[in-house]
Design a protein that fits this description.
Length: about 425
Amino acid sequence: MNKKIGNIFKGDKVIWMVFFFLCMISIVEVFSASSNLTYKSQNYLGPIVFHTVTIILGAVVAVVTLNIPCRYFKLMTPFLLIITVILLLWVLATGEKTGDASRWINFFGLTFQPSEIAKGTVVLATAQILSAMQRENGADKKAFKYILCIVSPIALLIMVENLSTAALLCSVVFLMMFIGRVPLIQLGKLMGVVVGLGLVGLLLIMAVGNDNNVVVDKAKTEQVSAPKEKSKLEKILHRADTWKSRIKKFSNKEVITPDQYDLDKDAQVAHANIAIVSSNIIGKGPGQSVERDFLSQAFSDFIFAIVIEELGIIGASFVVLLYIVLLYRTARIASRCENNFPAFLAMGLALLLVIQAAFNMLVAVGIAPVTGQPLPLISKGGTSTIINCAYIGVILSVSRSAKKRQPKIAEKEI
């Protein structure tokens, strides 16, 4: 019996334990945080049953993925790049809107975000380029150009509708290039260009955006003023109103008394803060959240606030620890790999999950502006949850090959 279970759950046991705990926390907290969904649907078990089935399906995907030899992931790269570009163009042209952003595609009843596929594809392509162009003194200088040629157009396509996801993806690629020993002078120049473009972009957003007529309610930005014809620049930066509003709110450090706080415009931030402040050290207990009934996207973008409210600082620290262990353990696995490609791929996917988790947590506690990034493997999701599980499966696949090589190395040393 134990052998049969071992044959299913192959790979690094610590990664499996982290994955298990994240999934269990997800089921408990999504069940608690989905009160608004259950009220609207008048189906008490519907949302959590759907999420649990998604988690189980994701676990199956992880098991299937970990049984794929790492060399086959290389063969997928060109096909995934073509599919990614097609899907990103598709979503810009005819995608379904959430608020003022077109991020979703409905394909025969299956709704998904192409950006989720794009993130893994870019990490896969970057890992392949870095591994193929490693030299004794580091990566070949041409690797930097090849990576930019692939990442830049994909990031720009994502950025139009989802700036935070584009920033997340670029951060992961930058760290992968640093780990992949891309010359520091090239990385330094890239940082200078990014900072310069960031300042120009910020100026454009502040100039084009109009936050006076924007009302943020339940994570949706709606125009309440009479429509007017927009210039070409305004059409390209059609989300400038949302971005400007978020930047101004985050940068406004003026102390506001409770009676002056506008719960209509700042409901998410306000109720997230209330959830955190009322948690104490041990929390209110699973299922005892109060703010879940008032906090929009409590089951997704702001689920970490509900985790703090119910599980307290201790429970929240445990969640943070799980992501740290995931990154640390993946780094240990990567260090054992004889080949560069699986090492870069595993580290890239781990960085993708952990940095996104950091984005979500920083937003929930008010350290970063609202970005709309869910908490990987914990927030309620459909295809995004399954894709994240596939990432875990890839890391486990790498861990299998790394473990198999260790005895051979030991024999040679003896």
